[in-house]
Amino acid sequence: MWIEGIGYAGAVLTVATYAVSTMIPLRILGLISSLTFLIYALITKDYPSALMEGTLVPLNAFKLAQMLNLTRQVRISANSDLSMGWLAPYGTREQAIAGQILFRQGDVANAMYYIESGRFRLIEAGIELGHGQIVGELGMVAPDNARTQGLECIEPGELLRVSYTDFKQLYFQNPGFGFYFLRLISDRLFANAAAARAGAAPVAAGAPLAAAATP
């Protein structure tokens, strides 16, 4: 009878995963559910189910650890600089060569970039960007999702490309990450407003927030 109780407990935990709306609680419940079903399958000698649950346990544990690390890094970043280097596991690296146009003004924006090396220039503003800076995040919230600036590589380097699809998933799955992104956007907009009042050029997406960019 107690063996069946383990099976029922696993079923309840599985159903409970559908009642949560954020990823971390879902991963925790999924991990406990898989562990419970794994124990049940081993006791009842249901080896196909044991194999499946034995695969899901490390998978859920890895995804949970990844999300907890993201949350920790977001918390650290929210109290320090606005670096996005910790997004590396969620993006793809791209190499750029001198003279390459990564995107042009008016292009549909579908990704943002974190510059890991090299030098890049916002074509219309003439602003240079380098290591540790981001570019393209404002396109995600622009009404028409159009690029407001073109981006050209002026010195070979490497970028981390994060698609808006992946970015949105992280945004909705992790409230801490959503807060970080709102702070990133609001700081950029406040900096642009301050630059406009001072009669200076706007702070470009990816430019340092400590001071307005110069023409």
Descriptive tags:
5 helices, Jelly Rolls, alpha+beta, 215 residues, single chain, 48% helix, 8 strands, 4-stranded antiparallel beta sheet, 16% strand, disordered C terminus
Structure description:
- The chain has helices spanning 2-17, 23-44, 47-78, 164-173, 175-197; strands at 92-96, 101-103, 111-115, 119-122, 127-129, 134-135, 151-155, 157-163.
- Helix 2 (23-44) runs antiparallel to helix 3, helix 3 (47-78) runs parallel beside helix 5 (175-197) and helix 4 crosses helix 5 (175-197).
- The strands form two sheets. The chain has a four-stranded antiparallel β-sheet. It has a four-stranded antiparallel β-sheet with strand order 2-7-4-5, with no helix packed on it.
- The protein contains five helices and eight strands; from the N terminus they run αααββββββββαα.
- It is of the alpha+beta class and 215 residues long.
- Mean pLDDT is 76; it is low at 205-215.
- The protein has two domains: 2-78; 85-197, Jelly Rolls (Sandwich), CATH 2.60.120.
- Helices cover 48% and strands 16% of the residues.
- Strand 4 and strand 5 (127-129) form a beta hairpin.
- The longest helix has 32 residues, at 47-78.
- It is elongated, with a radius of gyration of 23 Å.
